């Protein structure tokens, strides 16, 4: 059991493994958000562990397998302290980088987990997610195959990503689902009406990804500039008039955060932690960063709570966001 989660508060993932109340999304260390720096990424991983962050989130298709490989030496040094979460589903790999097909068949799952174990250099994956659901494959077949991995000792706990409330219920009836990874932030609140109450009733921990709106909620003063190969250039929220309108919203958020003596990113994360507590659900957000200073800033936000008036003020911004997230 990891023994370094005393620097930030902790929760039990689905009532099981103890994790720090904030994880680290590692995707951007290998792909999608412009140029990467391996040395800087590794330094950020080390610093995260020092701060009590002990759940590191990756996927087999991030960097076409390179993201899992990036984590391998870090995990080898800190396996007693670091938990690794990875995902299967997308068939995209180095041989077919533009293939965004999905596969949830049991035979594919068995192959995918072995490849991830090899790339990560571990004997067991702490949390194994279905990255996306394929409706043509019966859920009982996919979850059954995942449950078999637990029995075989290859996986400790199961997670799902971006499923409906009904799918979560169905899956949990087959095998306990420890974590549900869905987008949830001040600017993306769709899960609150149906999915969140089901997760709460099942004791499933929510793992909000993109809790900073893919960088949008970090704030304009930080000068978010999208490089030519940055995938966000293709997202409606980052394009043309939507981008300009949303930047104006973030400027307002920045002003509100300044009045509270915190950063824009901290205000956005504090909103999420406060909202989750008020809705009675455990969360482990996984903001991604390659920067040690940003990491420390994000971790500090895990202990910030907002008043009713402050929450109401921020939520008026959420109602005005322009464009789809992806």
UniProtKB/TrEMBL annotation:
Name of a matching Pfam family: Aldo_ket_red
A Gene Ontology cellular-component term: cytoplasm
Molecular function as annotated in GO: oxidoreductase activity
Annotated NADP-dependent oxidoreductase domain residues: 23-317
Keywords carried by this UniProt record: Oxidoreductase
SUPFAM superfamilies xrefs: NAD(P)-linked oxidoreductase
Listed name of the protein: Aldo/keto reductase
Organism: Pseudomonas putida (Arthrobacter siderocapsulatus)
């Amino acid at each position: 059991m990891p023994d370094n989660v005393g620097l930030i508060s902790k929760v039990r993932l689905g009532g099981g493994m103890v994790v720090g109340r904030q994880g680290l999304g590692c995707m951007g260390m290998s792909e999608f958000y412009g140029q990467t720096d391996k040395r800087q990424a590794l330094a950020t991983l080390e610093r995260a562990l020092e701060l009590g962050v002990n759940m590191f989130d990756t996927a087999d298709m991030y960097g076409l397998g390179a993201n899992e490989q990036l984590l391998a030496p870090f995990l080898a040094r800190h396996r007693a302290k670091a938990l690794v979460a990875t995902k299967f589903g997308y068939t995209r790999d180095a041989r077919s980088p533009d293939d965004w097909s999905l596969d949830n068949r049991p035979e594919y799952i068995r192959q995918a987990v072995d490849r991830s174990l090899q790339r990560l250099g571990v004997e067991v994956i702490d949390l194994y997610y279905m990255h996306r659901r394929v409706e043509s494959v019966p859920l009982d077949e996919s979850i059954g195959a995942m449950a078999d991995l637990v029995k075989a000792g290859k996986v400790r706990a199961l997670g799902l990503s971006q499923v409906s409330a009904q799918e979560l219920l169905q899956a949990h009836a087959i095998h306990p689902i420890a974590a549900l990874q869905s987008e949830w932030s001040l600017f993306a609140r769709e899960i609150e009406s149906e999915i969140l109450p089901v997760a709460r009733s099942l004791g499933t921990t929510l793992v909000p990804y993109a809790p900073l709106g893919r960088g949008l909620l970090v704030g304009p003063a930080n000068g978010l500039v999208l490089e030519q190969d940055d995938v966000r250039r293709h997202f409606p929220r980052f394009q043309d008039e939507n981008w300009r309108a949303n930047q104006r919203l973030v400027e307002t958020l920045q002003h509100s955060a300044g009045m509270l003596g915190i950063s824009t990113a901290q205000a956005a994360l504090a909103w999420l932690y406060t909202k989750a507590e008020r809705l009675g659900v455990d969360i482990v957000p996984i903001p991604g960063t390659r920067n040690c200073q940003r990491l420390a800033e994000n971790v500090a936000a895990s202990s910030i709570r907002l008043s009713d008036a402050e929450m109401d003020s921020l939520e008026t911004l959420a109602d005005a966001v322009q464009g789809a997230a992806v």
